[in-house]
Amino acid sequence: MNNLIRLSETGKISGFECKRLISNGAKMPDARFLPKIHKDKAFYNLKVRPIVNCFGAYHYNLSKFIADRLVSIFQNSEFRIKDSFSLSTELRKVSSLGKTLFSLDIENLYPSVPLNESIDMAMELMERHNSLIGNKTQTRILFETCLKSEFEFEGQIYKQSNGISI
């Protein structure tokens, strides 16, 4: 969190933002696993979906701050679809004559996301829109603080080294 204090001292974020982003008395994120019972033969080859609860964690406020910066970049994008209702509305406007619509199910989507490449892409986008939080190094540290975090499961502490958690 020294990085946040430096950002405040150099005027890259306000003192108010700095205090808001530094969590005092935060908890360690905890993990739980939901069974994927909707998959074929689920009870013979049980697969689980890992979920990390970061609410109240040391990086929770910082994650929301970064997410708000990213959302503001996409706010008016022609490629942005707010939710499934918006998607349904937009699809009704398109003639389906001679077109095929399909969807994909990517196995282990979140754990398969390459973190470093994702951070690079997000930083490049933020840089193009003048939304970096300080300089590139400072912004990378903030992303890594949020995405390469630790979590607890059954009393053991684990570090997220690749992929993202739900």
Question: Can you walk me through this structure?
Answer:
The protein has helices spanning 2-9, 15-21, 60-74, 84-92, 109-112, 115-128, 136-147, and strands at 30-35, 48-53, 150-153, 156-159. By secondary structure, it is an alpha+beta fold. It has a domain at 27-57 and 123-166. The strands form two sheets. It has a two-stranded antiparallel ribbon with strand order 1-2. Strands 3-4 form a two-stranded antiparallel ribbon. Helix 6 (115-128) crosses helix 7. The longest helix has 15 residues, at 60-74. It is flat, with a radius of gyration of 19 Å. It starts with a helix and ends in a 7-residue tail after the last strand.
**Order of the strands making up the biggest sheet:** 1-2
Secondary-structure-based class equals: alpha+beta
Shape: flat
Evaluate the radius of gyration. Answer: 19 Å
Major beta sheet, specifics?
2 strands, antiparallel
Mean pLDDT: 83
Poorly predicted runs are none
H/I helix tally: 7
Distance between the termini: 24 Å
Give me the count of strands.
4
Helix content: 40-55%
SSE order in H/E notation? Answer: HHEEHHHHHEE
Q: Report strand %.
A: 5-15%
